[in-house]
Specification:
The protein has 225 residues and is α+β, with helices and mostly antiparallel strands. The protein is built from 7 helices and 6 strands, in the order βαββαααβββααα. A hairpin with a 5-residue loop joins strand 5 and strand 6.
Amino acid sequence: MSDVSRTPPAWLLEHVSDVVSVIRSDGVIQYESPSVERLLGWRPDELVGRSILDYVHPDDVARVSAALAHRIADPTPVNPPTVFRVRARDGSWRVLAAMSRVTRDEAGAVSLVVNSRDVTEQSALEARLRDALRMESIAQLATAAAHEINNPLAVLLGHLAFLDKEAPENPRIEKMIAAAKRIRDIVDRMTRLNRVDMIQQASLPEMLDIWKSSDASGEPRPDRS
């Protein structure tokens, strides 16, 4: 039995909730189901005759082009979904997960029937989860690093206090003590990082952001970009 099937009847395509597209091997749209207007705001007649790549996000064009070529070359019934961003009529980007199958018309011309589902919210949720896991790992690392720094820092502060007694009002020693105390302050704040707050904000505390970290004077570093 051939893996290449015939195009389903038009009445079936017009009554599905997902977007169904019929696309030629060169990417030109031959048919769009009415549901495309509900999902993307485009009327089907506005899309027919245009290339699907005209509406794909520039960063996703190469992946979609490769997926189209792969499906034409390998028309097996089962294929993984291709996830990509497509431009809606209002200029926003929606994330679609598309599965396709190869069809032939009466003349033998090959095209793809593409079933696309809107996964924008799911993708956003997955991105937030990745951010939360990253912040959780950073918070754990910061707390562990702070504990490791504390012991040698205590020894350093002890020796600096001893030197300060031997050479009072020595500006170099005073600067070293001030710098060591600043490190102690940063380490103390690192041990008290609230992982829940980090996850909710999905942003690094300033002390852990190398682009926003402070110098020994406590003033923000100048922008060197």
